[in-house]
């Protein structure tokens, strides 16, 4: 069996405390360049905060340009990779839901985690100077507690500061949206998103999801169009394509096995579907992304 190239960060501190903060310029001290510069899946939530230099970072096979003041949010189970540059400075904050669970109630944790839902908001936030200062001070406060103070009160303070940090970034992201309308459609969109995650291998039809949720297809399209800025069918196809791309990185899976996992009985239909939406065949994508 060929070993899958997908790897997940396993910082010792993260595993022990469900939280860690690392300076970007010191990343290679904790993880090999081979892992960092190839697409790999993470088992935690991450925030990347850029303080110096410009460059790019890949999240779910999309490259995002960054410069001073860029914040990138990465959701648990997403694929990402670094384009390492020694001139780039900033911070990588990693945490698991359990870290917030011990401080917040279930509703507050769910609300905080929505900031990492790339289907609701872009993974990239670009800060203006005044916001940069506020975010930087919060992160430096977290770093101080981890590296310098580290007493019996530190992790309580870190959880509080992290919650404030996430909430502040989410507020900045929300400025891009009409909050009254978004709150009107948000619950319905999340229900659709959950149904899609559960049933994408069974059906890729808008009607089926609308029927399951008790909506008309017109209403479902209105909800998805407002929140995700695309028709429901395009959203379904984009989600399925991401699932296929992630599976293609697992070399131990044949194209036939992948086709079956995402709901195609005939691999030929997977080839047609994937090429229609990406211009590549599955084999071409697999070769390109790992070359």
Provide key terms for this protein.
9 strands, 291 residues, HTH araC/xylS-type domain-containing protein, single chain, transcription, five-stranded antiparallel sheet, alpha+beta, four-stranded antiparallel sheet, Jelly Rolls, Arc Repressor Mutant, subunit A, disordered N terminus
Give a structural overview.
This is HTH araC/xylS-type domain-containing protein. Keywords: DNA-binding, Transcription, Transcription regulation. InterPro entries: AraC-bd (IPR003313), Homeodomain-like_sf (IPR009057), HTH-like (IPR037923), HTH_AraC (IPR018060). Residues 190-288 form the HTH araC/xylS-type domain. The chain is of the alpha+beta class and 291 residues long. It folds into 2 domains: 12-174, Jelly Rolls (Sandwich), CATH 2.60.120; 179-289, Homeodomain-like (Arc Repressor Mutant, subunit A), CATH 1.10.10.60. The chain has helices at residues 12-17, 33-36, 97-101, 106-113, 129-149, 154-174, 179-199, 206-213, 217-228, 232-248, 255-261, 267-278, 282-289, and strands at residues 19-23, 40-41, 45-52, 55-59, 62-66, 70-74, 79-82, 89-95, 124-126. The strands form 2 sheets. It has a 5-stranded antiparallel sheet. Strands 2-7-4-5 form a 4-stranded antiparallel sheet, with no helix packed on it. Helix 5 runs antiparallel to helix 6 (154-174), helix 7 (179-199) crosses helix 8 and helix 8 packs across helix 9. The chain is globular and about 60 Å long. The two termini are 20 Å apart.
């Amino acid at each position: 069996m060929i070993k899958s190239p997908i790897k997940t960060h396993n910082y010792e501190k993260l595993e022990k405390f469900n939280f860690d903060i690392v300076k970007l310029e010191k990343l290679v001290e904790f993880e090999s360049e081979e892992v960092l510069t190839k697409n790999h899946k993470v088992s935690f939530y991450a925030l990347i905060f850029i303080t110096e230099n410009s460059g790019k970072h890949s999240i779910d096979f999309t490259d995002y340009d960054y410069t001073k003041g860029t914040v990138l949010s990465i959701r648990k189970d997403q694929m990402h990779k670094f384009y390492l540059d020694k001139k780039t400075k900033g911070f990588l904050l990693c945490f698991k839901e359990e870290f917030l669970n011990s401080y917040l109630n279930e509703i507050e944790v769910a609300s905080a985690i929505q900031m990492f839902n790339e289907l609701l908001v872009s993974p990239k936030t670009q800060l203006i100077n005044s916001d940069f200062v506020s975010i930087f001070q919060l992160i430096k406060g977290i770093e101080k507690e981890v590296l310098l103070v580290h007493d019996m009160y530190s992790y309580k303070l870190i959880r509080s500061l992290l919650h404030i940090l996430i909430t502040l970034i989410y507020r900045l992201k929300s400025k891009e949206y009409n909050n009254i309308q978004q709150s009107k459609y948000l619950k319905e969109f999340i229900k659709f998103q959950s149904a899609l995650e559960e049933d994408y291998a069974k059906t890729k039809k808008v009607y089926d999801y609308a029927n399951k949720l008790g909506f008309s297809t017109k209403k479902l399209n209105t909800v998805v169009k407002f929140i995700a800025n695309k028709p429901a069918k395009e959203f379904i196809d984009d989600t399925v394509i991401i699932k296929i791309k992630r599976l293609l990185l697992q070399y131990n899976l044949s194209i036939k096995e992948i086709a079956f996992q995402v709901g195609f009985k005939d691999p030929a239909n997977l080839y047609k579907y994937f090429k229609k939406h990406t211009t590549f065949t599955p084999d071409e994508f697999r070769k390109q992304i790992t070359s």
